[in-house]
Amino acid sequence: MIDTKRAAALLCAMNRILLLTHVRPDGDTIGSAAALCLGLRAMGKEAYLLYNPEITETYLPYAAPCWAPEGYQPDHVISIDVAVADLLPENASAYADCVALAVDHHPSHGYFARETCLNAEAAACGEIVYEILTEMTEITPAIALPLYVAIATDCGCFVYSNTSAKTHRIAAALMETGIDVSAVNQQLFRTKSKVRLKMEAQMVAQMELFDHDRVVIMKIPLALRQEMHATETDIEELSSLAPQVEGVDCGITLRELCPGKVKISVRSGARVNASEVCRQLGGGGHKAAAGATVEGSLDEVKSAVLRAVETVVSQ
Amino acid sequence: MIDTKRAAALLCAMNRILLLTHVRPDGDTIGSAAALCLGLRAMGKEAYLLYNPEITETYLPYAAPCWAPEGYQPDHVISIDVAVADLLPENASAYADCVALAVDHHPSHGYFARETCLNAEAAACGEIVYEILTEMTEITPAIALPLYVAIATDCGCFVYSNTSAKTHRIAAALMETGIDVSAVNQQLFRTKSKVRLKMEAQMVAQMELFDHDRVVIMKIPLALRQEMHATETDIEELSSLAPQVEGVDCGITLRELCPGKVKISVRSGARVNASEVCRQLGGGGHKAAAGATVEGSLDEVKSAVLRAVETVVSQ
Question: ipTM value of the model?
Answer without folding.
Answer: 0.86
